[in-house]
């Protein structure tokens, strides 16, 4: 488990530079995790968040010039749905839209399935 807690702090303080910097660091970390999963068959990687903070939107961006504009609509947690990404073994079990507590249930189902073997 890896947490990028400063993404949350950046949302609370409405700091675009913090969020962008932390997301870039998190992206590099996820790259290493996916590489590990590729080298270790049977590994499941789950990437998600417990909530969204700041009500962040992206009104403008330019890929060619590597520029991005963020807009903030809150300094607190919001009700915006957070994505879940899964990679590797049993990643298809994590498709769809559901309550975040269901992630625990799905993980425990896999643990029980493999513990019984």
Mean pLDDT over the full residue set:
93
List low-pLDDT spans.
none
Proportion of beta-strand residues? 15-25%
Helix content: 40-55%
Total helix count? 3
Sequence-ordered SSE layout with sheet pairings:
Elements: H1 5-12, H2 16-39, E1 44-47, E2 52-53, E3 57-62, E4 67-71, E5 77-78, E6 85-88, H3 101-115
Helix pairs in contact: 1-2
Compact summary:
This protein has 117 residues and is an alpha+beta fold. The chain contains three helices and six strands. Strands 1-6 form a two-stranded antiparallel ribbon.
Protein architecture, described:
The protein is α+β, with helices and mostly antiparallel strands. Helices cover 40% and strands 20% of the residues. It contains three helices and six strands. The chain has helices at residues 5-12, 16-39, 101-115; strands at 44-47, 52-53, 57-62, 67-71, 77-78, 85-88. The strands form three sheets. It has a two-stranded antiparallel sheet with strand order 1-6. It has a two-stranded antiparallel sheet with strand order 2-5. Strands 3-4 form a two-stranded antiparallel sheet. It is globular and about 50 Å long.
Summary tags:
single chain; 117 residues; alpha+beta; two-stranded antiparallel sheet; 3 helices; 6 strands; 20% strand
């Amino acid at each position: 488990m890896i947490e990028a807690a400063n993404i949350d702090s950046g949302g609370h303080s409405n700091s675009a530079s913090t969020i962008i910097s932390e997301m870039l660091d998190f992206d590099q970390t996820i790259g290493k995790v996916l590489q590990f999963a590729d080298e270790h068959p049977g590994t499941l990687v789950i990437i998600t968040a417990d909530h969204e903070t700041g009500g962040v939107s992206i009104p403008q961006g330019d890929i060619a010039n590597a520029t991005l504009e963020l807009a903030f609509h809150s300094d607190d947690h919001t009700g915006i749905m957070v994505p879940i990404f899964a990679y590797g073994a049993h990643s298809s079990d994590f498709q769809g839209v559901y309550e975040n507590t269901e992630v625990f249930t799905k993980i425990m189902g896999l643990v029980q399935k493999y513990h019984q073997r």
